[in-house]
Design brief:
Oligomer: single chain
Shape: globular
Radius of gyration: 18 Å
Strand content: 15-25%
Strand order of the largest sheet: 1-3-6-9-12-14-15
Order of helices and strands: HHEEEEEEEEEEEEEEEHH
Helix content: 10-25%
CATH architecture: 3 Solenoid
Length: 201
């Protein structure tokens, strides 16, 4: 039965049009991923766009009011609430072994499963790769195209390959005379030069 549910998801549900063209598609996908597959928690601000890979579904958990854009690859992850994931992000939970030089890498098998943790209120930019076992702290931002190989501290902005700290989102660390949380957020986002992934229209 579980395999049949996944076949329906990959062959039908995940292929429905993007919500900006057909809003009912998002409602159908959320209903299926919440009520049938049990991997999402829904919420008024939730979006689950086309062609999202969820593996076998057993290693994926997505919190309330999350926005998962098109062509996201989730091998395995525990995702908190109010998380934004831009298109073409890859979240990995395992890798290939490559230590034996006498054996082709494709024949060396996979590493143990290490599920990434993405805490509440995280923004992941377009084309980011998150490696196995990494934790993205609450309120953190990952710039477009970054490869995250180690844990990201809460309320920090990171970018690059491999991802490195750019600055903190906390007002005291962002700049002189910046006190309002909205102003601090705008300043931090501008500094990170993220492309922006607003909710689908």
């Amino acid at each position: 039965m579980e395999k049949l549910k996944l076949i329906v998801y990959y062959c039908l549900i995940s292929k429905l049009p993007h919500s900006r063209f057909f809003k009912l598609s998002n409602a159908i996908r959320l209903f299926y991923t919440t009520r049938v597959l049990g991997i999402t928690r829904g919420g008024e601000q939730s979006y689950f766009e086309p062609n999202v890979y969820i593996g076998n579904g057993r290693e994926v958990s997505i919190g309330a009011s999350c926005q998962v854009n098109e062509n996201v690859f989730i091998q395995g992850a525990r995702i908190g609430d109010h998380v934004m994931i831009a298109p073409n992000v890859a979240i990995l939970s395992r890798n290939h072994h490559f230590n034996d030089l006498s054996t082709p890498m494709m024949l060396q098998g996979a590493s143990e499963i290490k599920i990434p943790e993405i805490e509440n209120d995280v923004w992941i930019g377009r084309n980011v790769v998150i490696m196995p076992g990494v934790t993205l702290g609450e309120g953190s931002i990952v710039g477009a195209g970054a490869v995250v190989v180690k844990d990201v501290a809460p309320y920090s902005i990171v970018g690059g390959v491999p991802a490195r700290m750019i600055k903190s989102r906390k007002p005291a660390a962002i700049g002189h005379g910046t006190t309002g949380s909205a102003t601090a957020r705008d300043t931090a986002l501008q500094a990170a030069r993220l492309p922006g992934t607003p909710p689908p229209q």
